């Protein structure tokens, strides 16, 4: 088996592999700005592939470099021969070399990725909203978005995303905000001096209306955008709303005790613990007295951060440095759900992924709500 970087000559092979694996007929190029990949060859023939996208995920208000792993496909004849695990092992070193201390993915085969240190760390959700359950509210003066609104629209999104652990910052080159203008519906609520108070993006199909983002800087704007959806009454009984802002679906809609949420889960992998901790925001650290916890990181696939590490809280900042007595033993799979805030040390201990008193780790992460993504890759 030979593992190498993906190049332009692999385009046809990658499309073939992904058609066989996923039924995909997408003409999306496997290589583009913000995306690279790895190929595994058998007997000189590409037999497996994965892609790596260059994202940033918000944690504690700070955008942390994150590699989105996607499109992992293995030719049927080559399955069971270690190609997928070989690609994942090679990818970990590649991510570290490219300064990406985190990696997230949507796992179709969770056991495969768990064996290499990824673990469930957040959700991606769609809520089916009955139109008659939408709140009545004063109308807001929305208008169609244009190219001149893109920067202000993105600023509106970023203000939200920086407060929700896990959301992407949606910056170039991996994401081009201008792509949003290709959607059927892009409404903005203008504010003062070119500001956007809120916006709504959606796509209409025979199956119904899919609302990708409903984002507002205040409750009145969000409620006004929800009211805009009531104009579909008579044509549709319900709309599907992607949960970008949990306040909209959790606090502002009138769903009954039973309602439908379609949930996908994503897994997170801490590739380089010291670098990830240094890049993350730690709002709770400002209120903590100087403290430290000694870790023993068990991670055979990322030896550069395995072993004894000391997590230090001092002067409102957090860092990881070598040393300590290893009083708290952390499996590689524990790092992702702890870092995202999805699981506390008690749950990780019950799952057999942590041993020792990790109360400081819990105090640092706090309880900021369920980590979530609102983009698929």
Automatic annotation (TrEMBL):
Lineage per the UniProt record: Bacteria, Bacillati, Actinomycetota, Actinomycetes, Pseudonocardiales
First and last residue of the signal peptide: none
GO biological process, one term: aminoglycoside antibiotic catabolic process
Transferase in keyword set: yes
Pfam families assigned to the protein according to its UniProt record, in alphabetical order: Acetyltransf_9, SCP2_2
Record domain N-acetyltransferase: where: 1-135
Name of the protein in question: Putative acetyltransferase
Molecular function terms, GO-annotated: aminoglycoside N-acetyltransferase activity
Keyword list, A-Z: Transferase
UniProt xrefs under CDD domains: NAT_SF
């Amino acid at each position: 088996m030979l593992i190498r970087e993906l190049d332009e000559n692999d385009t046809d092979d990658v499309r073939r592999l992904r058609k066989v694996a996923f039924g995909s007929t997408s003409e999306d190029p496997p290589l583009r700005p913000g995306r690279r990949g790895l190929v595994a060859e058998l007997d000189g023939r590409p037999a497996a592939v994965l892609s790596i996208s260059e994202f940033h995920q918000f944690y504690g208000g700070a955008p942390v470099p994150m590699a989105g792993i996607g499109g992992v496909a293995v030719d049927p004849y080559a399955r069971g021969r270690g190609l997928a695990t070989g690609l994942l092992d090679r990818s970990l070193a590649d991510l570290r070399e490219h300064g990406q201390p985190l990696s997230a993915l949507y796992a179709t085969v969770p056991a495969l990725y768990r064996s290499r240190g990824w673990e469930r760390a957040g959700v991606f959700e769609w809520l089916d909203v009955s139109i008659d359950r939408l709140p009545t509210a004063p109308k807001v003066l929305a208008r169609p978005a244009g190219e001149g609104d893109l920067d202000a629209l993105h600023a509106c999104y970023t203000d939200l995303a920086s407060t929700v652990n896990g959301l992407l910052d949606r910056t170039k080159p991996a994401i081009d905000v201008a792509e949003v203008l290709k959607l059927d519906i892009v409404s903005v609520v203008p504010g003062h001096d070119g500001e956007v108070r809120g916006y709504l993006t959606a796509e209409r199909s025979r199956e119904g209306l899919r609302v990708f983002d409903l984002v507002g800087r205040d409750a009145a704007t969000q409620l006004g955008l929800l009211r805009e959806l009531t104009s579909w009454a008579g044509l549709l009984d319900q709309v599907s709303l992607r949960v970008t802002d949990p306040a909209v679906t959790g606090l502002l809609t009138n769903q009954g005790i039973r309602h439908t949420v379609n949930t996908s889960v994503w897994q997170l992998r801490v590739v380089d613990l010291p670098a990830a901790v240094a890049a993350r925001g730690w709002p709770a650290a400002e209120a903590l007295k100087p403290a430290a916890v000694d870790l023993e990181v068990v991670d055979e696939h990322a030896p550069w951060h395995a072993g004894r590490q000391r997590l230090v809280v001092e002067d409102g900042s957090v860092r990881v440095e070598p040393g300590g007595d290893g009083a708290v033993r952390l499996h590689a799979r524990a790092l992702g759900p702890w870092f995202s805030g999805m699981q506390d040390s008690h749950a990780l201990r019950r799952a057999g992924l942590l041993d020792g008193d990790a109360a400081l780790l819990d105090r640092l992460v706090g309880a900021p709500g369920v980590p979530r993504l609102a983009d698929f890759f």
